[in-house]
């Protein structure tokens, strides 16, 4: 299970399971990655639920 983060500054892919970790990063700074990681941690349950709803278990 993973999520993609895309903006005008770059793109990143994060694994949600078994733990949150970055898979790929294109152009985000370390500071931006820290913020993205924090937001993913805060919303992990919502992201996982949406992923399962869209793709199935």
Task: List the SSEs and their pairings.
Blueprint: E1 2-7, E2 10-15, E3 21-26, H1 30-42, H2 44-55
Antiparallel strand pairs: 1-2, 2-3
Question: Nutshell version of this structure?
Answer:
This protein has 57 residues and is α+β, with helices and mostly antiparallel strands. Helix content is 44%, strand content 32%.
Structure characterization notes:
- The chain is α+β, with helices and mostly antiparallel strands and 57 residues long.
- It has one domain (2-55).
- The protein has 2 helices and 3 strands.
- Strands 1-2-3 form a 3-stranded antiparallel sheet.
- A hairpin with a 5-residue loop joins strand 2 (10-15) and strand 3 (21-26).
- The longest helix has 13 residues, at 30-42.
- The radius of gyration is 11 Å and the shape is globular.
- The N and C termini lie close together (10 Å).
- The model has no long low-confidence stretch (mean pLDDT 95).
Distinctive features:
alpha+beta, three-stranded antiparallel beta sheet, 44% helix
- The first-to-last residue Cα distance is 10 Å
Mean pLDDT: 95
Number of domains: 1
Shape: globular
């Amino acid at each position: 299970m993973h999520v993609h983060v895309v903006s005008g500054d770059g793109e990143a892919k994060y694994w949600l399971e078994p733990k949150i970790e970055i898979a790929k990063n294109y152009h985000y700074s370390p500071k931006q990655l820290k913020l993205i990681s924090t937001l993913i941690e805060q919303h992990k349950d919502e992201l996982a639920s949406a992923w399962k709803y869209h793709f199935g278990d």
